[in-house]
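QA checklist item 7 of 12: single-chain prediction sanity check.
[x] sequence parsed
[x] length recorded as 136
[x] structure emitted
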Amino acid sequence: MTMRPMRTIIPMLLAVALAGCARQQLANADKARDRMAFAKAASLYEKALARLDDREAALNAAHAYRMLNRTDRAAHWYAQADGMSPLQGEDALAHGRMLLAENRVSEAASFLERVLIDHPEDPIVREIGFAIADRD
């Protein structure tokens, strides 16, 4: 038996094992989130996201950090999810709010505009839009 097949099999097995480990971390993070253990959930989501490119997990990490009032980390994970597929509705609104909390007003305005286009009669979005306009 030559060493060549072993050199290709070992990296493939390692990749499969790491992906399985990341999926287990996601499952544990979901359980922690369901128990409202947001700090544990956020940590597990971050560990899994180091190995996976998963939009739902990025949104879940952002939500967990939002519940912990860690606006910087929440904004980071909302941005990651937005990079995978544009945020809409409640997620875009939450991202805009996190950016406002970080005093990143011009970035927040673009997300809030998305929500306002889809929901022009939403009083919360309109009030936030007026507040941003007053800041300028």
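[x] summary fact logged: Residues 13-18 have pLDDT under 50 and may be disordered.
[ ] second reviewer sign-off
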